[in-house]
Amino acid sequence: MALGTVSGASSSAYDLRFDAGRICLDLLATTHPGEKLDSVEVLHAWITGSGLVPPGTPLTHADASWLVGFRELRGHIGRLVHGRLSPTTPPYDRSLARVNELARTAPPAPRALRREDGTLVRELDPPEYPALLGAIARDTVELLTDPVARASLRQCEGDNCPIVYVDSSRGRRRRWCSSEVCGNRERVARHRRRAALARA
Question: Does residue 126 have a cis bond before it (omega within 30 degrees)?
Fold first, then answer.
């Protein structure tokens, strides 16, 4: 479970999305349409935008090793999510063991601080990346061991879109990772096909 709240302002500049329904699936989505976690700066935006940390949490101590760790975990999550129907291969078992190992790490500890006006706000000390990876790994464990959530996993029907999301729509009829992205592409393609048939 995310420790903060989604903050889209800083993440939108990097075309990051947080609409898959789980933080582990949002991390998985950073591979499409190309590698999005290509700098520490983008990783900062993803960590904050995903809600792993409250906005304003210092992340200046992050370095390239964080990118390696987040990408490695992302690969394991992908193997587990895409292999969920046939989890009998050694790579699946290795990924499961690694996610379980990371899930043991204690999450970043929040603390309540009083502002000048007396209101309390949640803050984190600068978190270390194993604690952040642990939070994502626990989210993965929760997703894969929850029969209802697992049954709601869908792969986007968009053309060449690999994004997996939790379908929490009414009637479980969601077809696309995003109606605005893949849904619009499908509607435009359908319109063009109809127009081409009308001209023929």
Answer: no
Tens digit of pLDDT for each residue in 44-66?
999 999 999 988 898 999 999 99
Burial track 58-86 (b if 16+ CB lie within 10 A, e otherwise): ebeebeeebbebbbebbebbbbbbebeee
Query: Which string of DSSP letters, residue by residue, matches 2-54?
Result: -SS---HHHHHTTT----SSSHHHHHHGGGSSS----SHHHHHHHHHHTTSS-
Structure tokens at 123: 């803050």
What are the start-end ranges of the E strands in 17-161? 110-114, 120-124, 153-155
Do the beta carbons of residue 82 and residue 164 sit within 8 Å? yes
Question: What tokens appear for 179 in the block?
Answer: 């109606």
User: Are 87 and 96 spatial neighbours (Cβ–Cβ below 8 Å)?
Assistant: yes
